[in-house]
Amino acid sequence: MRKLSRRHKENVEKTKNTIYSDLNQAIQVLQETATAKFVESVELHANLNIDPKYADQQLRTTVTLPHGVGKQVRIAVLTNDENYEEAKNAGADIVGNDELIEDITKGIINFDLLIATPNMMPKLAKLGRVLGPKGLMPSPKSGTVSSTLTATLTDFKKGKFEYKADKTGIVHVTIGKVDFTTTQLVENLQALYDSIEKNRPSGVKGKYFKTLSICSTMGPSIKVDCNTFL
């Protein structure tokens, strides 16, 4: 069993048995307990009353947080030759066709997000086993299959990203960095909560949120009262 550091033990003591009903206070405590020697990410973990094995209880959607997540996303675009210039002008880091598919087949994946135009999807079908486990397979639902490349690339460069509930019904999402201001993190947190609420699956019965907590990469879990957002 891994031994906890004194720093981590002290941080846990500050937050255990406490459920915060003030978002500003919760974020401030998170920032105070983020004492690692690097700029930690801030994460939201929402335990939802859903069973994703049923089609009407699945959550998978996109959101653009008002202040982004503090990370530059490297985007690849799979499209026809005639769209290369548009994609590059709109900010794509990699643009390709058959040569990009060949690289992916070889396991060369130098991007964080893959956008494809609809006519390229038949070519991508054989790469589902490579891209699927990495969460990189383009899909219309996530907005990564698009014929409007300029608008789509602009949105994703601004910080739009996809999230989903895992097989146990929990959403794990990065909402920023600990060096964001408290206000920025609160606004990002509120925006993500609103997105999860707005995209409530039709099969949910009764209470939707079970528990909600935030934490930094190396910090303790900080429980937040779900009613704070209502």
From TrEMBL:
PROSITE patterns: RIBOSOMAL_L1. GO terms for cellular component: chloroplast; large ribosomal subunit. Keywords: Chloroplast, Plastid, Ribonucleoprotein, Ribosomal protein, RNA-binding, rRNA-binding. The keyword Disulfide bond does not apply. One of its GO terms (molecular function) is rRNA binding. The keyword Hydrolase does not apply. Gene3D superfamilies: 3.30.190.20, 3.40.50.790. Pfam families: Ribosomal_L1. It is found in: Plastid, Chloroplast. GO terms for biological process: translation. InterPro entries: Ribosom_uL1_bac-type, Ribosomal_uL1, Ribosomal_uL1-like, Ribosomal_uL1/biogenesis, Ribosomal_uL1_3-a/b-sand, Ribosomal_uL1_CS. It comes from the Eukaryota. SUPFAM superfamilies: Ribosomal protein L1. Belongs to the universal ribosomal protein uL1 family. Part of the 50S ribosomal subunit. Binds directly to 23S rRNA. Might be involved in E site tRNA release. This is Large ribosomal subunit protein uL1c. It comes from Pseudo-nitzschia multiseries (Marine planktonic diatom). The lineage of its organism: Eukaryota, Sar, Stramenopiles, Ochrophyta, Bacillariophyta. The gene is rpl1.
